[in-house]
Structure of Endonuclease/exonuclease/phosphatase domain-containing protein:
Amino acid sequence: MQYARRRVVQLVVLALLAVGVAIAAPAAAAERDRLKISIANVAGAAKPPVGVILDTQKPHIMVISEAYRARAHLSEVADRYGYRLRQYGPDQGAEAPGIALLIKNGVTIKDRSLLKMSEPWWWKSGKRDPRRYPVVVVGVNGKTWHVVGVHFPPGGPSGGVVVDYKNRAAWIESRKAVQAYAANHPNAPVVAAGDFNATADECRSHFPGFLVAQGAKVDHALAKKDRGARFDDVIRHDAPNGMHGWITFKLSATPS
């Protein structure tokens, strides 16, 4: 009888271990298909302290907007923390250096492109050249992701009262460009992240077919629905004075 009891206990322990292994395997698979994106608007600073985000969050990609003057500093930061800087130069348009991407070493860069807008936009200083949005196609642990870094013209979909609503055409063009890119790449997850210069509710209204993860007032991340991607977490960081939208988004997707 005592032997029989011991045998039952052994079988129960083995069964529990087996359940643990079964549970751990899907969890590990989900971890392999996870993407972490950080964003930050650095307000034109030459030496934005983004290294703290790379060090603490270790995102696969960081999207930095208003990075016009930060190329040298970001190159040094990338080398220090194990990242690669991808930032187009002014030969691709005056706004091309405005968004910089920091991509973690070990992440496979499969392709790069630049979405070029044609509509000018306005701010208090006057008329500005059309926006440029860098796109990177990356492989993270075997999963392919398309990531679009954005900084939409100020004013939101209305165009902005500050500039007499002149930016409406440029904002709508930017929205259509992101939507068209997603439509033209129908298989892998497509994520747009950065400064949308619009509230999360405005983005939900103007981006049907996209999941919207609210980051800050105008800084968010969007993922095309029906691609197996979802947002798992949003982490908000303290932004230095004058800067905004320092956010980390955690996404996961069904295995390829």
The chain has five helices and 14 strands. The two ends are 51 Å apart (CA to CA).
